[in-house]
Amino acid sequence: MSPRLFSFLLVCAAAAVVVAAFATALAWSDGAPPGATKPAVRPGTIPIAVLGDSNSHSYQDRVAFPLGSHERGGALRDQTFQWTEVLARMRGNELDFGPWVHWGRPWWSAWVRDKVGLLPSRTPIKEDYLYNFANSGGACKNLMGDGLGFRYPQVPRLLSLMKQQPERWQNGVVVIYIGANDWNPYLDLMAREPEAPELHRVIDYCTQQIGRAIEAIHASHPSVRILLAGITNQGDDPALQDKYRDATSPSNIRRALAGANAALRRIAEADPQRIAFFDANAWAVERWGIRGPHGEPDFKSVRLGHLTVTHTMGDAPSNTMLVDDHPGFGWNVLWAQSILARLREAFGLPLTPISDDEAARFVDATAAKP
């Protein structure tokens, strides 16, 4: 075979592979039943979407986390709900997270479809509420798809979905709860040098990406309200309570974190009619407290129904953190209660508060299930 013929056949083979890849991308099923991405509007409900990381990825996802996997939700996952799952169960008649769907495509398939003008679908594939685009491992780069984040962009995919029913989102809400995967790897640096340049670069990047995300949402849907949640102190996480046991490290971490949350708060203060800040760290401190003066664990417990929830790690609902180091059931019920209250307070939304008694009854009834 001549070199010229060989080169020609090689080009033809490469072209065939590219064509096959495009055809596969276009034909790949997104898993959702017909009409699932344009569900009927439920009168009286407020559509709510979520952008974020594993703190907002539903625990009942059997696609990303198959049965037998304890990566999310822990050993008692059937009774361990994440905060969106709590709100959907307690206020699903008022807040509409969309139907529960197995929906999504591999990133390359969604990317190709996006380039040819078709609905690209959610990436990665997961089983979750339709409007929940948070996924485990999500970082600030994944909001708009910056750099390598192009594989799992959340805002462009959400906007593609919202574009199908723009009237639905005239009274909508988007919760942005992201940044922990960018910020928490620097805990040791925070403990030593709370004003380190690296820390400023991280939060500057995240605020830039969050700002871009909000601008993109408001460019298409000007009336959508944005609730921006801050970052909590992972230095007080039960898994790390044997670290930072000195007089300076915990206060240094709190100082660095205060600066990061202040930067996020400023985003909301620039547009208070449409953007509100939820101070997640102040919330955690109020409920669980902080370390003692020498870094020793000195946290509070919270009574919730028949449970006493302590700032400890374990899959039982009496722990704030699961063995997989994600918020436990009790934490998520209290968080959902406070998120709802913040939406009412900030935007005047007609949402029914979750009383302490109602939260306790919900926890007791759920924890009692076999």
Attribute tags:
370 residues; alpha/beta; Rossmann fold; five-stranded parallel sheet; three-stranded mixed sheet; 41% helix; globular; signal; GDSL; EC 3.1.-.-
Structure notes:
There is one protein chain. The N and C termini lie far apart (70 Å). Strand 6 (225-229), helix 9 and strand 7 form a beta-alpha-beta unit. 43% of the residues are buried. Helices cover 41% and strands 12% of the residues. The longest helix has 25 residues, at 3-27. It has a single domain (48-367), classed as Rossmann fold. The chain contains twelve helices and ten strands. A five-stranded parallel β-sheet has the order 2-1-5-6-7. It has a three-stranded mixed β-sheet with strand order 8-9-10. It is an alpha/beta fold and 370 residues long. The protein has helices at 3-27, 83-91, 107-115, 141-144, 155-163, 180-183, 187-192, 197-220, 249-269, 280-288, 329-347, 356-367, and strands spanning 46-52, 95-96, 100-103, 126-129, 173-177, 225-229, 275-278, 301-304, 307-313, 319-321. This is SGNH/GDSL hydrolase family protein. GO terms for molecular function: hydrolase activity. Its EC number is 3.1.-.-. It comes from Variovorax ureilyticus. Residues 1-27 form the signal peptide.
